[in-house]
UniProtKB/TrEMBL annotation:
Organism of this sequence: Christensenella tenuis
Protein's name in the database: ATP synthase subunit c
Topology term for the membrane: Multi-pass membrane protein
Site residues, Reversibly protonated during proton transport: 55
Keyword Membrane: yes
Domain V-ATPase proteolipid subunit C-like: 6-68
Gene that this polypeptide is encoded by: atpE
Keyword Ligase: no
Annotated compartments: Cell membrane; Membrane
Length: 74
């Protein structure tokens, strides 16, 4: 049971990487808009797609940890 808890904690740890990545992407998008305000629409479009993909990584890690806790913990 102890190793399952450690594995679930490591799986949830993917949220930290996703958060850092989303912060970096957002800051670079702000810089890009500041440099080229006329490209704001295209930058926002690409940013939202990238943020969705990064967030899905965190969600997958969370789902894997829930699966580990409730199915393997019995």
């Amino acid at each position: 049971m102890g190793l399952i808890a450690i594995g679930a904690g490591i799986a949830v740890f993917t949220g930290m990487g996703a958060g850092i990545g989303m912060g970096i992407a957002t800051s670079k998008a702000c810089e890009a808009v500041a440099r080229q305000p006329e490209a704001t629409g295209k930058i926002n479009q690409v940013l939202l797609i990238g943020l969705a993909l990064a967030e899905s990584t965190a969600i997958y890690g969370f789902v894997i940890s829930i699966i580990m806790i409730f199915t393997m913990g019995k």
